[in-house]
Every structure is written in structure tokens, then in C-alpha cells.
């Protein structure tokens, strides 16, 4: 009897660890729910090391957003270098994490979340020193273009409906001279 229970438990282990037997991720995140969550923090201030609505840094914002879904996100932007699956620029999609080199650091110093792609624009939700939590297009902005390192995919999203593109009313685009 003990061997039978052990065999059943071992057979179930892959499903428990990596997802359901039907191939669907075990812990998908509703994109609609995430949009509601991030809209609540748009405009909040930047605070170095911040992980709550009192102020966010870039990685603290991601930790705050995904904590509600049981995800433990990397503690720093540089930790995203080895997190998730690497994605090429031309494969970026909504829900991917965008990585940028820090000022003069040579390593990853900033992370944002892709929240929309349209007409060549890649809209990024992030917390920046210049304006706190905002959504802006980073494509074509020299500051971000020269610092783009890559993207990572790590959260399985469930798109209950087509993801809404961020409206221009949600957050103004920053100028091409914006900084982290």
C-alpha cells in the first residue's frame, strides 16, 4: 500500500511542479486584473528601494504588481538577467520584461513591463526617477535605445479579452531626453 501511494505521488509531482496535465500553466495571471492593479499605481512617486504605493523603484514596482499573484520577483533589476526566458527585441509581446543598462554601469540597471505594442511603439510600464510610475514608449528615445539590453518572459498570462492598449490619457509620454 505504501508503495502504491508513493507511486501515485511521484506521478503527480511533475504536474504539481510545472503545471497541469493539459499543458495549461498552473498559475496564470489575468492580464485584465493586472491592468486594474497597475492603473492604481500610475503616477505614484519614485523611491529608491521602494516596493509599495509610498514609492517604487523599477524592480519594486514589479514585485508589488506580481506579489498579489503569488510570484516572488527578482529583488533588483540586475537579477532579471538570469530570470525567465530571454526574448529577442522582435519577439517582444505584452507581458514581457524589458531590461536596460544602468547609467555607466555596464550591467542591467532598469526593468519595465511591456504593456502595449502598436505602430512600432513598445509601451513600457516602469518607475523612473524623473516622473515615478508611468507608461511611455521607449522606442526611438535615444536614452533607452542605447541602453536596451534585452527582454525576458517569465509570467504566464491569460488574456481574457484582447489586452487594452494603454490610452494616451493613462500617462503622458516622456520626452526623448528622459532618464531613469
**Helix count from the secondary structure assignment:** 4
Give me the CATH fold name. Answer: endopeptidase fold (from Nostoc punctiforme)
Helix content: 10-25%
Shape: globular
- What portion of residues belong to β-strands? 25-35%
Distance between the termini: 61 Å
At a glance:
This protein is 22% helix and 26% strand. It has 180 residues and is an alpha+beta fold. The protein has a single domain (23-158), classed as endopeptidase fold (from Nostoc punctiforme) (Alpha-Beta Complex).
3D structure, described in words:
It is a single chain. The chain is of the alpha+beta class. The protein has a single domain (23-158), classed as endopeptidase fold (from Nostoc punctiforme) (Alpha-Beta Complex), CATH 3.90.1720. The protein has 4 helices and 10 strands. The protein has helices at residues 2-18, 31-39, 58-67, 142-145, and strands at residues 29-30, 51-52, 55-56, 85-87, 97-101, 108-118, 121-128, 132-137, 148-153, 157-158. Strands 4-9-5-6-7-8 form a 6-stranded antiparallel β-sheet. Strands 1-10 form a two-stranded parallel sheet. A two-stranded antiparallel ribbon has the order 2-3. A hairpin with a 6-residue loop joins strand 5 (97-101) and strand 6 (108-118). The N and C termini lie far apart (61 Å).
Amino acid at each position: 500500500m505504501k508503495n502504491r501511494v508513493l507511486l501515485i505521488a511521484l506521478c503527480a509531482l511533475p504536474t504539481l511542479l510545472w503545471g497541469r496535465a493539459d499543458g495549461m500553466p498552473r498559475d496564470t495571471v489575468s492580464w485584465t486584473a493586472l491592468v486594474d492593479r497597475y492603473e492604481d499605481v500610475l503616477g505614484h512617486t519614485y523611491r529608491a528601494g521602494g516596493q509599495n504605493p509610498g514609492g517604487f523603484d523599477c524592480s519594486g514596482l514589479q514585485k508589488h504588481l506580481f506579489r498579489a499573484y503569488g510570484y516572488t520577483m527578482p529583488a533588483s533589476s540586475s537579477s532579471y538577467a538570469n530570470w525567465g526566458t530571454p526574448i529577442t527585441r522582435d519577439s517582444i509581446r505584452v507581458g514581457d520584461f524589458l531590461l536596460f543598462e544602468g547609467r555607466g554601469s555596464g550591467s542591467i540597471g532598469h526593468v519595465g513591463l511591456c504593456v502595449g505594442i502598436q505602430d512600432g511603439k513598445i509601451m513600457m510600464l516602469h518607475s523612473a526617477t524623473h516622473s515615478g510610475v508611468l507608461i511611455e514608449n521607449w522606442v526611438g528615445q535615444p536614452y533607452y535605445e542605447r541602453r536596451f539590453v534585452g527582454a525576458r518572459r517569465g509570467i504566464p498570462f491569460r488574456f481574457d479579452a484582447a489586452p487594452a492598449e494603454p490610452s494616451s490619457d493613462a500617462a503622458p509620454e516622456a520626452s526623448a531626453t528622459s532618464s531613469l
